[in-house]
Amino acid sequence: MNDNVISSGALSNVSNQAKFAAEPKSNELGQDVFLELMITQMRNQNPLDPQDNSEFVAQLAQFSSVEGLDKLNTTTENMSAMFQSSQALQASSMVGRTVKVNTETAILQPGGAIEGTIDVPTSTNSLEMSVYNTAGQLVDHKYLGPQASGDISFAWSGMGDDGESLPAGTYRFEVLASTESGSEQLSTALSANIDSVSVGNNGILTLNVAGVGPVSMSNVKEIL
Predict the structure, then answer these.
(1) How many CB atoms sit inside 10 A of residue 169's CB?
(2) What is the pLDDT of residues 175-206, one digit of tens each?
(3) H helices within the chain, ranges in order?
(4) Distance of alpha carbon 102 from its chain centroid, rounded?
(5) In the chain, what are the domain boundaries?
(6) Domain covering 103-191 in this structure, CATH number
(7) How far apart are CA 38 and CA 48, in angstroms?
(8) pTM for the structure as a whole
(9) Positive or negative, the Cα torsion across 32, 36, 42, 43?
């Protein structure tokens, strides 16, 4: 007999074994089984001491309640999965976009500009903005004058104090406001590109922003 030849009966046995192994086993009590057990219980009860009908009704109500909760859990899980899929789709569309995020540093692209927003909590008589390169050298300084409270938008094209274009790279912005108690540094939101987006197990989006690093959506000031 050729060892490479397998009989159809052997194949059928292997197929049946694989099918049996693949079928999931469940210890859950289905509704049909529950009703059969309840009917059997009614048929075999002591006729001289029958079980109160209210007990059967209570059992049925308890089963229905458990079954309803199970369906609710399934629905909730499905909704959560759909929400995470929607979050992932939304996240993929963010890649390559430019956003303003709460940061002091930003990357100046060749021939580009850095857009920003200054958060002024209270009115000030004097507002000044300084720009520093990676070596800590002051490369530009602007006097913005008196400002009321609110957001102040600006765009820096990479021109230094001497009127010359500065090289592409990372720059730090420092904004100082004159107050009654002295000079106060204000927070800035600067433009940056989104390199990638990740979605955590909890469904929270994290933006990987060029020159800044991981940033949560709550730190995004504006999508440009």
Answers:
(1) 13
(2) 999 988 888 999 999 999 999 888 777 667 78
(3) 8-22, 31-43, 53-92
(4) 18
(5) 103-191
(6) 2.60.40.4070
(7) 19
(8) 0.60
(9) positive
